[in-house]
Design goal:
5-stranded antiparallel beta sheet; alpha+beta; 7-stranded mixed beta sheet; rod-shaped; single chain
Length: 566
């Protein structure tokens, strides 16, 4: 019962606080009539007509002076007549009781509507939170967990997700870019890389950044909420991308109001064409794309020519490469959408065209080759005496071994498919001819004991050696563009193999012919000597011995004559 009474009291207080304008007007009329009957103004103020005298504003039922009773509620205590114990008006009391019951019903209905409204708001909040969680999960961001205090943090996550991923159907952010090459530090043909010092300029429109006008570093701009397109060089080598400086400038005037300028030093991967090396032309490619956005988020555009270019002074110094005709390298730029499986990017390519320096080619190839071939050729002019056999062999083998060492340590050792590799092969094969000619000379002079034939073979080889070298060099220069390296290589191999075979067969045939001629003349002389011995009468053993010993001397004369005739 006590709880019920307390509840009724609360409802009564609530109903008196939320009374309708009709009830208020009735109370005002009742208060007016009471004021007319009583002359004391303080009494009227005590009944609630004066807002300063009744700040609570709850004494709506105490305005009738005849209704002051001891059974009245606390709201009636401001009436001095009621507190004094006046006689209550029964009809007015019933009317007040009826009005109180109507107020209770009205309050109950309002409370039910308030409960429904609160439940509806809670369902909306839960639905909104689930949507935020879905957006956060889709953006790949970490969802914050906890109580309702994290709602603000969840809103921040949603904003970050919206910044990272454009809304569906929204236009991509158009970024005007530029690449300025300050220096090509190194070109590494073996690793297919080059090192560059670049200035990358990005300019785009961001209406949300107008209020953040000013100049910032990259990190400071990100901390202020400036959305950056994250455009980087994509064909760089891993962990070799150094940002020297990064500057973001926001202007509240014009259409392209955000500009980012980065200076970077980077090692870039490039697919070099080595077929014509060292007379090659290379295209140095610098590829750019957004690191975090697809083509529907960021689209690159090249419209401002002042953003592009190369530094004319000392751009390629120390790289053995120059621009066309020794001047500034030509550059081009292209933008396209590139799709690889599910990866679709707006990609830009900045290309530099460079040429291998001709002086470097002569210095690296033709200079050492000339010295080695000349040294090997001079060994053919050493005297033919036996005492010069070892110096002659050493003088021909040393240039060959030096060439092998030079080629194995040179910059072209790993460029098997290049024209320079074909040229090195030609040099080695030509230098190998000199030891072969020396061996043929020594074999003829020592094994066959035919010094005159050996001298004749050496004289022929002295004439053939430089002619063959010049012809082979001209043949190789015809294919200097590198498109027919295999044909050039196989043709030169066939030439030297055929020449070596011709030299060996020629030496063998001539030595064999001379040996047969000597053997035939020796048999003929022996037959003539036997005929003469039959015609001579028997004599002592001494004269016969003299005839026998004289036969070799007579046989030596025709052999000498045959040598002179050859």
């Amino acid at each position: 019962e006590e709880e019920g009474k307390d509840g009724a009291s609360d409802k009564t207080a609530s109903s008196s606080a939320k009374s309708t304008p009709t009830k208020a007007s009735k109370a005002k009329d009742s208060a007016s009539s009471a004021t007319e009957e009583r002359d004391d103004p303080n009494e009227s103020a005590a009944h609630g007509n004066n807002p300063d005298a009744n700040p609570s504003g709850d004494d709506n039922h105490a305005n009738n002076p005849d209704t002051g009773t001891d059974t009245a509620t606390d709201d009636h205590s401001n009436n001095p007549d009621t507190a004094a114990g006046g006689t209550p008006n029964t009809q007015q009391t019933k009317a007040a009781s009826s009005e109180s019951e109507d107020d209770d019903k009205e309050v109950a209905g309002k409370d039910g509507a308030a409960d429904k409204s609160t439940a509806k708001k809670e369902r909306k909040a839960k639905k909104s939170h689930s949507k935020m969680a879905a957006v956060v999960k889709h953006a790949g961001l970490a969802e914050m967990t906890g109580n309702d205090d994290n709602v603000v943090a969840d809103d921040a996550i949603v904003k970050a997700a919206a910044a990272a991923k454009p809304a569906a159907g929204a236009e991509p952010l158009v970024v005007n870019f530029g690449v300025y090459c300050r220096k090509i530090i190194d070109i590494n043909l073996h690793d297919h890389t080059f090192t560059a010092d670049l200035v990358i300029t990005l300019r785009w429109t961001d209406e949300t950044a107008y209020a953040k006008a000013g100049s910032y570093g990259r990190d400071e701009a990100v901390s202020k909420g400036v959305k950056l397109p994250d455009v980087v060089i994509t064909n760089r080598e891993m962990n070799k991308y150094d940002v020297i400086s990064s500057h973001v400038r926001i202007d509240n005037k014009g259409t392209l109001n955000v500009e980012q300028v980065d200076r970077v030093q980077v090692v870039i991967l490039s697919d070099f064409n080595m077929k014509a090396f060292p007379f090659d032309k290379q295209i140095l490619e610098i590829k750019l794309a957004s690191k975090t956005h697809m083509v529907d988020g960021v689209r690159l555009k090249a419209t401002n020519r002042s953003f592009f270019g190369v530094k004319e002074d000392n751009l390629l110094e120390g790289t053995s490469y120059v621009g066309e005709a020794g001047g500034t390298p030509n550059w081009t730029v292209a933008v396209s959408n590139e799709t690889d499986a599910g990866l679709t990017k707006s990609r830009a390519v900045f290309r530099l065209e460079v040429f291998h320096e001709s002086q470097s080619a002569f210095r690296e190839l033709f200079g050492p080759t000339g010295w080695l071939v000349t040294t090997s050729y001079m060994a053919l002019f050493l005297p033919s005496q036996m005492t010069y056999a070892m110096p002659r062999v050493a003088s021909t083998l040393i240039p060959l071994l030096a060439a092998i060492t030079w080629i194995s340590r040179s910059d072209e050792k790993n460029l098997e498919s290049s024209w320079g590799a074909v040229f090195h092969e030609v040099v080695l094969e030509h230098l190998a001819l000199t030891p072969l000619a020396t061996l043929l000379f020594e074999s003829t002079n020592i094994a066959w004991q035919n010094e005159e034939l050996a001298q004749s073979l050496m004289g022929q080889f002295r004439l053939i050696y430089p002619i063959v070298f010049l012809c082979v060099m001209i043949w190789c220069l015809i294919f200097v563009n590198g498109e027919s390296n295999k044909f050039c290589s196989y043709s030169v191999r066939f030439l030297y193999a055929a020449l070596s075979l011709i030299l060996i067969i020629n030496m063998y045939l001539k030595n064999s012919a001379l040996q047969k001629e000597k053997d035939g003349e020796g048999d003929k002389e022996e037959g003539e000597g036997e005929t003469e011995a039959q015609d001579v009468p028997l004599a002592s053993a001494a004269p016969r011995a003299s005839v026998t010993t004289a036969a070799p001397k007579s046989a030596a004369a025709p052999a000498s004559a045959a040598d002179d005739e050859f």
